[in-house]
Amino acid sequence: MIRKDINEPIIIDKTEYSAILVNNSIKESINELCSKMYQGQCVLIIGPDIILNEGYGEGNSRKYLEYKYKEFVFNSSDDDIINNGSQYEARGEFLNTFEFNMAKECNKDLYALFKTRLFRFVLVTTYDSYVEEIMKEVWKCEINVINIFDNETYKKFAIQGEDGMMAPTLCYVFGKAVPRRKGKISYEFNLNDNDAIKAISEWIRNPYLSKIVNFISKKNILALGCKLDDWQFRFMWYSLQQNIKDLSGNVAISLTDSESDIKLKHYLKKINVEDNGESRLFLKNLLGHLYSPETSVFDELSREEGSIFISYAKENFNMAMHLYNILHGQELNVWIDEEELSVGDYFDFKISEGINKCKIFIALLSGQTKMDIEGGRKRYYSSVEWESVKQINAGRASKKEQTLQPIDILPIAIDGFDPNLDAMNLIENYKMFDGLSILKWGKDSDTKLLQKINTINNQ
Asked: Whole-prediction pTM value?
C-alpha cells in the first residue's frame, strides 16, 4: 500500500472528546480499563470494522479493499496474474500498488486512541497495512512488524529495547499480504476459513511464538472491531492467551441476533469477557473518558507524603507511565500528574500539593525538553513544576523552614537529550540542575534508578 498524503497532517481536536458525557452505567468499567491502559497492562487487537471512516466501505477496511480490488481486476492489463496467478498473488499485487489517503480514509477516533501512545504492542486481524501506517505516523519511526506466516519476523519481538522499553510492535494475527520469496514470490494470509485455521494452528503449535503468547497471556486484551465468526473468535481468543483459567478481557464488537453471534455472546459471558457493544460508540466513550477534565483514572495512583513525583512533557507521557510502573511495582508511592489530560486551577493546586509532599522529584529530560529550552518556550512542566520545586527548596533552605528536608531532584535523560552535550544549556536556564548527575536511560537503568532512590530513602 502506498500512502499519498505524507505531508497532509491528521488533525485531532481533543475538545471534541472532552465534551462527551460518558454514560454512568459504563463509566466505572471504562475507568477500570483506562487504569490498566495507563499501567501498561493492555494489549490492543484491531479488526477491520473500526479502521476506516464510515464513508469508505462502511468503515470496514476489508470490505473497502475488496471493492477496490474488483476495480483493479476490471481495469488490469496483467492477465498473467489475474487469470493464471493465485487469488493471493492477485490481491498482493493489488495492495502493492494501491494508493490511499490516510488523512481522509482513516477513522480519526482510532487515530486519537493510538495518539495516546498507550499501546506499544498491537495485534491486527486484517492483512492490509492501514494500522501499520497509523502506528508509523504516531510513533514517527519504523516499527517492528511480526507476520504470523514469517518465522524471521518473530525475532523482532523484544519486551525490552535499548531504552528499557518495548519498541512499537505490530503483529498480524492472520498474516500480512506481503510477498515472500521461496524460489518465487508467494503470498500467505487469511482469505478463507482454511487460512484462519492455519494461522490459529501456528499460534498454538509454533514454538517460536511462545515468547509472544507468554507476554500476551499476562495482559488484559482489548479487542475493537474484530467481527469474526463465533468459532474463529473462540480459537483466536484462546490461542493468544492460552490460559484456560483466565480468558477474561474487554471487547467492543457489534453482535446481531444471528445464530453464530448468539453463541459468541454466550461464550464471552461464560469466560468473563465484557462486551462493550458497538465498537465505534465504545471508542468515542473511551476517548471521552481519556480526555475529560473530570477523569478519575489518576485517583488510583498513589499521592502520599514522602512519595516520588514524576515531571514530564506531555510528549513523553508514555515514558512517564513506564517509570510509574517500574516504581509502583516496587511498592513505592509515586505521584504522576494528569497535565496530559486535564487543566485548570484545581489541577494546578493538586500538582503544587503533590510536589510539596514529595521527597524525590524525577525530571524527564528529552529531545522535546531540549527543543523547548532552545526555543525559549515555557511549558507547564518547566514553568510550573520545575519552578515549584525550586521555590520549595529555596524556602526549606531558609531559617524559617530548616526543619524540612529539601526535595531530592533526579534528572533522567531519554531519547534526544544528551547529558554530555545538552546539560550546559539546561543549567544556564535552570540553575536547580547545577551539580546534579543526570541518569542516561538505557537497558539496565531501572536498577540504577532504584538504587539511587533506596540511597535517598535510607539517608
From this structure: 0.75
